[in-house]
Task: inverse folding
């Protein structure tokens, strides 16, 4: 990739066979590209028959760093030696090759969100009454951290419980313009009535 | 694994000495014979070796000679009580059978189908096919193999762990709500009211507008561009908020301006 | 690494955002260098937001082949797609870093592989008939574990014996694009040629 290598010669003058710098650079490159773990200078020197000077190897490594300056990967020095890695900005693209399934919210989180969406503003007590179970603060924190619910006030009863409502961001994230675009409750009660009929 | 048995290659090495031919009377250490046996992949391989070694014509195999050569190897193996795969003995029987069929005069036209065929034809076909595959195996083995003759490139990719957030679709909300309704129905004492969602949304909107804690003109809480249904919804929302004591509504004089503000404690919570 | 990329533009002219060829080449390079398995054209195209023409991607790949012409690794096409490998002549040096070599396969394994490769699909019985000996299950397991053969069906005879065939991975591991690139069988009638020579 670079012609500079030819002009270098190993420090060790008494070496019987002078090391062909260009060729040795290829070997270094192949070794570094086929190994995920960093390779120390000592290990890289094992790739040559001739004993090599650290400086000679380091200069070739610096040349490789330059050779890859415009590429999608970069050669760098870490604690244990030298290694190639994909440039961090490539990750967002490379992730497309192995798309992971997105995680899902638990039923408790989804029901809490539904209650807040349809019955807002509601207190934790309201949610608990509707769900029939205790609502952990973790659930509310999850939804608040996501920016989907916030506290819009407190109810004027003993304990002054916080009133939760959904945010505009929740609408944006669900691709809704307003809460009215949520499936209407009438539709659902229709389903419920169907169930009742089926049950009777 | 051991090299293939080539005609020029020794059958085995004993104490470093190449053993080109099986000595007839000398004592052969069983180890050496095992090497011989392992060298061959089976009776076909051994036959091919004999054919090549004695320069026989595979298209016109002298059965007497080949059978004799083969039998002497088999005898030797058996004399040394080496475990001989059944295939070797079966092949011996096949060879003898072919040999005897060749000695018989061919029945004239008695058996049109088979009668004309050389009894060696099947053996010949099998030898040629096996040899072809044997050579193909050698060629395949000469091809560079990943991991053995070349390395694959694999550069590290450091994946900074980006927290992946669950996706929620409207349908998920619907399902969640349906689940709540279904449960509520089971516990009959819970009454889940059906209500206009737009009123609820408007209530939240008004509460947000009043967050500053100051009085807001009543008319400012209405969006004149929203049309009459919107005005009605806003009005119901304010009444609902007042009912739930979430807002205070004041009017200093009859027909004067009406002001609305969030309940004191509601603002304090901010 | 190469400046040529800038002058290319994707075939798809109506694309709202024109693909920056130089940047996309970096993404291709990073993807190929970080993945041991070959990447197909379809997979590589997933790396772009814009729908891309095969020819556009192939031209960038050819540029990458050129960019690496003087390096210790090479980009090439195999059965499953494109992938980088260290040049085979580097192996003698790279073995110094990793002294344990994978075991060489026995003649029995290689003959079984050859029969499956050239006569596929075949049953174990077919293989035994050609080799003239029993084929141990260990041999087939070895080849299956390597991912070189698999069962592609059963033959419709009593016992429903499995039919074996070679996989694309076998071709990949031998650096081949298709079965046609296997050494040709015509060259392998050693006995016959010898006989002909002897006869003349």
Result:
């Amino acid at each position: 990739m670079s012609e500079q290598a030819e002009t270098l010669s190993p420090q060790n003058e008494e070496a019987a066979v002078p090391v062909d710098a260009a060729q040795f650079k290829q070997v270094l490159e192949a070794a570094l590209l086929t190994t995920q773990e960093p390779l120390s200078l000592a290990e890289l020197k094992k790739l040559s028959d001739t004993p090599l000077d650290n400086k000679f190897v380091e200069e070739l490594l610096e040349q490789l760093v330059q050779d890859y300056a415009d590429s999608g990967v970069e050669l760098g020095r870490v604690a244990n030696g030298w290694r190639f890695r994909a440039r961090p900005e490539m990750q967002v693209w490379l992730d497309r090759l192995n798309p992971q399934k997105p995680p899902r919210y638990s039923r408790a989180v989804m029901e809490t969100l539904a209650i807040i969406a349809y019955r807002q503003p509601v207190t934790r007590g309201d949610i608990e009454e509707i769900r029939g179970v205790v609502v952990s603060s973790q659930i509310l924190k999850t939804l608040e951290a996501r920016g989907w619910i916030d506290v819009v006030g407190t109810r004027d009863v003993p304990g002054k419980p916080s009133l939760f409502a959904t945010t505009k961001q929740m609408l944006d994230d669900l691709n809704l313009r307003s809460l009215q675009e949520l499936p209407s409750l009438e539709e659902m009660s229709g389903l419920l009535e169907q169930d009742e009929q089926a049950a009777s | 694994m051991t090299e293939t048995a080539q005609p020029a290659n020794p059958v085995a090495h004993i104490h470093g000495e190449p053993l080109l031919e099986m000595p007839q009377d000398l004592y052969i250490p069983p180890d050496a014979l095992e090497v011989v046996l392992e060298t061959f992949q089976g009776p076909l391989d051994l036959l091919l070796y004999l054919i090549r070694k004695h320069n026989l014509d595979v298209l016109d195999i002298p059965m007497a000679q080949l059978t004799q050569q083969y039998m002497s190897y088999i005898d030797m193996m058996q004399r040394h009580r080496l475990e001989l795969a059944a295939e070797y003995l079966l092949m011996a029987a096949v060879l003898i059978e072919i040999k005897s069929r060749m000695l018989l005069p061919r029945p004239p036209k008695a058996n049109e189908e088979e009668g004309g065929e050389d009894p060696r034809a099947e053996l010949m076909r099998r030898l040629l096919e096996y040899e072809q595959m044997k050579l193909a195996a050698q060629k395949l083995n000469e091809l560079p193999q990943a991991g053995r003759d070349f390395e694959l490139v694999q550069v590290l990719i450091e994946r900074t762990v980006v927290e992946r957030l669950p996706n929620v679709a409207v349908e998920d909300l619907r399902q969640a709500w349906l689940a709540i309704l279904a449960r509520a129905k089971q516990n009959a004492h819970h009454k889940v009211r059906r209500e206009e969602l737009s009123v609820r949304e408007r209530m939240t909107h008004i509460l947000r507008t009043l967050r500053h804690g100051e009085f807001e003109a009543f008319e400012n809480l209405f969006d004149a561009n929203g049309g009459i249904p919107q005005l009605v919804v806003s009005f119901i929302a304010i009444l609902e908020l007042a009912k739930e004591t979430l807002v205070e509504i004041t009017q200093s004089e009859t027909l004067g301006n009406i002001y609305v503000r969030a309940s004191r404690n509601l603002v304090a919570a901010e």
Observations:
- Strands of chain C lie at 73-78, 81-86, 149-154, 162-166.
- DSSP finds nine helices and four strands in chain C.
- Chain C has two domains: 7-94, 107-199.
- Residues 107-199 of chain C form a domain with the Arc Repressor Mutant, subunit A fold (CATH 1.10.10.10).
